[in-house]
Amino acid sequence: MLGTRIRTSLGAVALLLVAATAACGTTAPVTSIGQDPPALKVGADIPYVPFAFGDGPDYKGMDMDLVREIGRRLGRRVEIQKTPFDTIVRDVAQGRFDMIAASMVITEERKKVVDFSLPYFNSDQSIMVKKGSLITDAAGLTDKRIGVVLGGTGEKWAKANVASVDLRTYDLVDDAFKGLAAGQLDAVINDFPSSKFAERSYPTLEVAATIQTGEYYGLAFKQGSPLRKEVDQALREMKADGTFERIYREWFQTAPPANLLS
């Protein structure tokens, strides 16, 4: 996630904008007769259960199922590139891959650097603690050791809403969970779905509270990329024909909220 970590120079940004503008004239991969279209290269923060995890190239998770179905509809083979979350926006802006599928929250700040697809998941935060902890809500986080993903929404929320906190950042949320289980942290603030799913792997941990944000996950693209419109169309079709709901149910055992299908 981006947070405030935007390091691209003004010169590089100008070159990227020129390249993106030139690319806007096409809406589909250009190939010679008899050639396969280029692979759809997708940057992903792995592991991030239940959205992206496992061993490559056959990564599992909702994000992975989603982009593979999108690739199928676009006639392009999907190639997943494992990438740290704190550099993933910079990498797509520099053309390392075509798209980001990393449970990324759509924010106005990030829209200054990348373009987003239609939303595909409601994003709430959560407070994960060890079972038996006295922390039961956000008020209990003051002066505690809190783990967050570097550059993530949890880090931003903690800085804005907890008056005094010992904030510790991690590249991978799984490392924060391990630190919590080992007693090195008092709580982890993280996206609710992955924290809830992690209870299966960490029997000593539990989600103590959720934090409603009114935010959504979206797939992200280099600004001006024509791929965004193609992906949005694929998402609309998937939501209309039931494919999106099937993928959602597979990972969360419930129907997606109505606002995601509209």
Would you give an account of this structure?
The longest helix has 15 residues, at 227-241. This protein is an alpha/beta fold. The chain has helices at residues 10-23, 62-74, 88-93, 108-111, 153-161, 173-181, 192-198, 227-241, 243-252, 258-261; strands at residues 40-44, 78-82, 99-105, 114-116, 121-130, 145-149, 166-170, 187-191, 205-222.
Write a concise keyword list for the protein shown above.
D-Maltodextrin-Binding Protein, domain 2; 9 strands; alpha/beta; disordered N terminus
Element layout with pairings:
Blueprint: H1 10-23, E1 40-44, H2 62-74, E2 78-82, H3 88-93, E3 99-105, H4 108-111, E4 114-116, E5 121-130, E6 145-149, H5 153-161, E7 166-170, H6 173-181, E8 187-191, H7 192-198, E9 205-222, H8 227-241, H9 243-252, H10 258-261
Parallel strand pairs: 1-2, 1-3, 6-7, 6-8
Antiparallel strand pairs: 3-9, 4-9, 5-8, 5-9
Cα separation of the termini: 26 Å
In angstroms, what is the radius of gyration? 19 Å
- In the CATH hierarchy, the architecture of the largest domain is 3-Layer(aba) Sandwich
Count of individual domains: 2
Q: Which percent bin holds the helix content?
A: 25-40%
Mean pLDDT value: 86
> What is the CATH topology descriptor of the largest domain?
D-Maltodextrin-Binding Protein, domain 2
Query: Uncertain spans, ≥5 residues at pLDDT below 50?
Result: 1-32
State the gist of this model.
With 262 residues, this protein is α/β, with parallel strands linked by helices.
